[in-house]
Amino acid sequence: MSKDFGDESKLTWLRFEIPESSWNATVFEQVCRCFEELTGGETITWEVVTTGKILLETHYKKIKDRQKFFEKMVKKSGMKLQNSDTDHPLIFLPAMGWIGKDGQYLPRHGVMIMFKEPDDRVLKYLEAVAEILQATYCYYTPKAAFYILERALCRYFHERGTGDIALAQQLLAEAEGKLPHAPGACRPSDWPVMRPSRLGWLNYWSEETCDLFGFPAQGDLQQLAVAKRCGSGAWLIQLTETPLDLTLPEHRKKVIWGYQRFQFDMGIKTMELSF
User: Fold this and answer.
1) What is the structure's pLDDT at 107?
2) What is the pLDDT of residue 186?
3) DSSP labels, 234-268
4) Which residues are 37's β-sheet partners?
5) 32-198-18 Cα angle (round to 5)
6) For residues 182 and 191, what is the distance between their CA atoms, to the nearest angstrom?
7) Which residues pair with 114 in a beta bridge?
8) Cα separation of 227 and 222, whole Å?
9) Residue 239: beta bridge partners?
10) How far apart are CA 251 and CA 145, in angstroms?
11) What pairs with residue 99 in β-bridges?
């Protein structure tokens, strides 16, 4: 099963920004156990995936003792694990990267979960894993809507690329110039890394991240399909009742509201994953 993912560009993902304190073997073992609970309680056999430096061949090696494996791997820049014995394949990617700030690059820690759409457990994945990782934020948007939004935010209307150009232009027109432009200006020096770069259909924001947004302010909760306070004090936010579909006028209206209401860090660079 693990070697049958096919083209990884067809997978979707959850990206978690996490504090350095969560970059440890015990936390990653808890994440793996969480997956096992969410996939029926069966033990998942994970494989570490590596690529040869010369021949670029992909190698798979089963992990016998996850705790020991994680204790060794957290000292490196990143790792890629793929499950091999479940009907719901997952890729688990803890990785360190760097982010530019005031002309300097600062260390950054994150985790990416990749899976096949549709998966009706995505909300459970997001909340459960984010709570274990004590994530500062995570967001998820179905891929079709994600690529349309990226075109609109980046003002990219060339035929190359992915995402419906006409819908992206329509979203911009309906926003009347009030949709932010990414990449934007460099962030002010007092902006911490924890400010998200995008609004997702599903969002997990820590207490500190919510404070940056001034969330919840008066009227916020009425605009959202779901706004749930998690055990850690973080908020789980769902923008629309059904998965975001930008062919629907009411969904485009909700996206425009969200980007006007919250100031996202459009200058942020995607985490560089190195293996």
Assistant:
1) 65
2) 45
3) -EEEESSSSSP-TTSHHHHHHHHHHHHHS---TTP
4) none
5) 35
6) 17
7) 13, 91
8) 9
9) none
10) 10
11) 106
List, for residues 187-229, the tens digit of each pLDDT value: 444 555 567 888 999 999 999 999 989 999 999 999 999 999 9
What pLDDT, on a 0 to 100 scale, did the predictor assign at position 258?
96
Q: What is the pLDDT of residue 97?
A: 64
Output the pLDDT for position 185.
42
Distance CA 198, CA 259 (A): 9
pLDDT of residue 119: 73
Q: Are 141 and 244 in contact (CB under 8 A)?
A: yes
CA angle 139, 215, 132 (to 5 degrees): 45
Token pair 């040869």 in the structure block, residue: 52
- Count of residues making up the chain: 275
Query: At residue 79, what are phi and psi to the nearest 5 degrees?
Result: -155, 155
Report how far apart, in Å, the C-alpha atoms of 225 and of each of 17, 243, 245, 251, 260 are.
24, 11, 14, 11, 17
Bridge partners of 238, per DSSP, are 202, 226
> What is the DSSP-derived secondary structure letter of residue 8?
G
Low-confidence ranges of the chain (pLDDT < 70): 1-10, 41-42, 50-60, 77, 84-89, 97-107, 118, 183-194, 266-275
Phi and psi at residue 82, to the nearest 5°? -135, 135
Sheet strands side by side (includes 12-18): 58-62, 46-51, 81-83, 90-101, 104-115, 12-18, 137-140, 202-205, 235-238, 226-229
| 3-class DSSP string for 154-183 | HCCCCCCCCCCHHHHHHHHHHHCCCCCCCC
